[in-house]
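User: Reviewer 2 asked us to show a designed sequence for the structure in our supplementary figure. I'm pasting the structure tokens here. Could you produce the per-position amino acids so we can include them in the response letter?
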């Protein structure tokens, strides 16, 4: 699913689940789906006049090492 960042006329920054359209009457970018509000200080170069910015999410996975096996935890048949 493509994601887009767009800044509303009032400075609000939203992450949209699709390419939004500018609603100049309301001063909002809209897709018809719910958008996620992000901190307004993010992406300061993105303005109301800018085109929506396509973005992607990259999963951040932290692996936790398994604890060492002790002789008490080893199964003997």
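Assistant: Here is a per-position design you can include in the supplement:
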């Amino acid at each position: 699913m493509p994601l887009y960042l767009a800044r509303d006329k009032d400075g609000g920054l939203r992450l949209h689940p699709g390419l939004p359209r500018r609603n100049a009457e309301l001063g909002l970018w809209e897709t018809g789906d719910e958008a996620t509000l992000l901190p307004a200080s993010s992406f300061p170069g993105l303005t109301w006049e800018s085109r929506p910015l396509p973005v992607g999410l990259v999963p951040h996975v932290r692996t936790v090492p398994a604890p060492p096996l002790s002789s008490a935890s080893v199964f003997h048949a």
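For the response letter, you might also mention the following. Residues 1-39 form one domain. The longest strand covers residues 3-7.
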